[in-house]
Amino acid sequence: METRTKLVACEYNDNGVCTNVVVVKNLTQTEYKKLVNESNIEKAKEKELEDSILLDIAKLHTQNKNIIFFLAKCIYDSFVDRGFIDDDNDFELKWKNYITSGEQIDEFPKFMSLIIERLGA
Question: Which residues contact 94 (CB under 8 A, 6 or more apart)?
Fold first, then answer.
């Protein structure tokens, strides 16, 4: 018969399969407080890292959206230059304001919207 030498806590998933094993120790109050403090510091670091990653993802999403707008505008201008569609002076003014002052464009011409849709935005 094998002797039991380890005291552990096991975490199980819904299927009854062990997903995590941790060593269980008997601690003094001081040791316990120290370990809880260490644990809280690590959780705060993980949360900060997670928030940083989410912020980076949001920035990348915005950059991707801007790149799609610029690519769509190039395609749109190409169609205008070739005479396939008529130039929209209202949209050109909105685009200039978007570039120069960051003013958002509330409505795109139908063909520009179609290009943006095709590009996956």
Answer: 103, 105
* Strand ranges in the chain using DSSP code E only, listed in sequence order: 8-12, 18-23
**CA distances (Å), origin 54, targets 20, 42, 108:** 27, 18, 29
pLDDT less than 70: residues of the chain: 121
- Give the pLDDT score at 66: 83
DSSP 3-state assignment of 13?
coil
Q: Can you tell me the distance from the alpha carbon of 78 to that of 73, in angstroms, rounded to the nearest whole number?
A: 8
Predicted local distance difference test score (pLDDT) of residue 55: 94
Contact residues for 120 (Cβ-Cβ < 8 A; gap 6+): 68
Rounded-to-integer distance, Cα 75 and Cα 81, Å = 10
With beta carbons less than 8 A apart as the criterion, state whether 92 and 105 touch.
no
